[in-house]
Write a structure and sequence with these properties.
- 41% of the residues lie in helices and 20% in strands.
- It has 349 residues and is of the alpha/beta class.
- The strands form two sheets. Strands 2-1-3-12-11-4-5-10-8-9 form a ten-stranded mixed beta sheet, sandwiched between helices. A two-stranded antiparallel ribbon has the order 6-7.
- Helix 1 links the parallel strand 1 and strand 2.
- Helix 1 crosses helix 9 and helix 10 packs across helix 11.
- It starts with 6 loop residues before the first strand and ends with a helix.
- It binds nicotinamide-adenine-dinucleotide, 3-isopropylmalic acid and magnesium ion.
- The site of magnesium ion has 2 residues, from helix 8.
Length: 349
């Protein structure tokens, strides 16, 4: 591709609550960081509560066809108190992750210099969680009988396929191998979840033989939560299932600067479908519309998006800008918009 023909065709889904506020800042920074020769085309979609209330739909086949035409997707957050819990989360967000085969849910955690952490002694935190994104208890494989009665029985079965586990474990090994410390920790609960746990452990050990330079270890998920607080420096890359990954990445965010700075990418490694980048946090109805949301997580998700599309210098510039902004922040209280402006100025300058 010649330099002059570079372009990014981006689907933008602000979504609900603070999603609207933080995505506006993400786009501001994206426009500011891109060199003039890169043509940025964005198309905004109204998925989330707005679309649901207007049409009763969450994500139609026609929507999926349109989203597929894009190089990547930037998402704010989905979920609103006006819609029954799960309708948008399952009907939009998980549906899209599954349809676009986002099996690598990449969630980096880095405690940047000068950033407050609830942990003592400002530990070294720099790890990534590779969360499986298409299986586990998220598939909707369950049901309920005698629903609403005192005798209700509900199941939610975790689905783990050798194919699905192997591909995400392989991806995590490759990521660990590319990092200086070359260490990969499998997090599961194989002492209790014997069937799924053994599948994960066996696949992990088999793939490990192909990566002899990667140091491996294993932690039960409950113990992993201890070490994320008491000794986060021990982690380099973590690979885990969909639900454990969801839970430990909120904890990881909390110890490394807060949920307002935690970025993620839902990656389809083959490139068959667009990958989707979004903050780890949700729509935060408690602060929505107040200009209180920190847009850094979304801005850092834009950096992951740019790196995914091959714009490494621009991704690095965004990360440096966020790092500098956080270090300079002190006790100052700024609005979402002001932080977005400051970041846009830093990446442009
Ligand atoms: N990827 C997504 O779209 C996504 C992710 C998580 C939750 N959700 C949905 O969002 C809704 C709210 O969920 P929740 O309350 O459990 O989680 P949440 O992440 O929205 O909020 C948890 C807490 O973190 C705070 N917070 C979140 N983002 C922040 C930011 N950028 N700056 C400052 N503070 C921030 C909130 O104010 C709240 O106190 C639910 O409908 C949930 O299903 C969506
Ligand atoms: C909203 C919900 C479906 C989602 C998840 O559990 O994956 C969220 O918590 C996340 O971390 O992206
Ligand atoms: Mg979550």
């Amino acid at each position: 591709m010649s330099v002059s023909s570079r372009s990014i065709n981006l689907a933008v889904i602000p979504g609900d609550g603070i999603g609207q506020e933080v995505v506006a800042q993400g786009l501001k920074v994206l426009s500011a960081v891109l060199p003039q020769d890169v043509k940025l085309e964005t198309r905004e979609f109204d998925f989330g509560a707005r679309r649901y209330h207007a049409t009763g739909e969450t994500l139609t086949d026609a929507d999926v066809t349109e989203l597929k035409q894009h190089d990547a997707i930037l998402l704010g957050a989905i979920g609103d108190p006006s819609v029954p819990s799960g309708v948008l989360e399952r009907g939009f967000l998980l549906k899209l992750r599954f349809l676009f085969d986002h099996y690598v849910n990449l969630r980096p955690s880095r405690l940047l210099p000068g950033v407050a952490t609830p942990l003592a002694g400002q530990p070294e935190i720099d790890f990534i969680v590779v969360r499986e994104g298409t299986e586990g208890p998220y598939t909707g494989n369950g049901g309920s009988i005698r629903t609403g009665t005192p005798h209700e029985v509900a199941t939610e079965v975790s689905v783990n396929t050798a194919f699905g586990v192997e591909r995400v474990v392989r991806d995590a090994f490759a990521r660990a191998q590319a990092r200086p410390r070359k260490k990969l920790t499998l997090v599961h609960k194989n002492n209790v979840l014997a069937y799924a746990g053994h599948l994960w452990t066996n696949v992990f050990n088999a793939v490990a033989a192909e990566f002899p330079d990667v140091t491996t270890d294993y932690l039960h998920v409950d113990a992993a939560t201890i070490f994320l607080v008491t000794d986060p420096a021990r982690f380099d890359v973590i690979v885990t299932d969909n639900l454990f990954g969801d839970i430990i990445t909120d904890l990881a965010a909390a110890v490394s600067g807060g949920i307002g700075v935690a970025a993620s990418g839902n990656i389809n490694p083959s490139g068959e479908f667009p990958s989707m980048f979004e903050p780890v946090h949700g729509s935060a109805p408690d602060i929505a519309g107040q200009g209180k949301a920190d847009p850094s997580a979304t801005v850092l998700s834009v950096a992951l998006l740019l790196r995914h599309l091959g714009y490494e210098p621009e991704a690095a510039r965004i990360e440096s800008a966020v790092s500098a902004d956080l270090a300079a922040r002190g006790d100052s209280v700024r609005t979402t918009d002001e932080i977005g402006d400051a970041l846009a100025a830093r990446v442009a300058g």
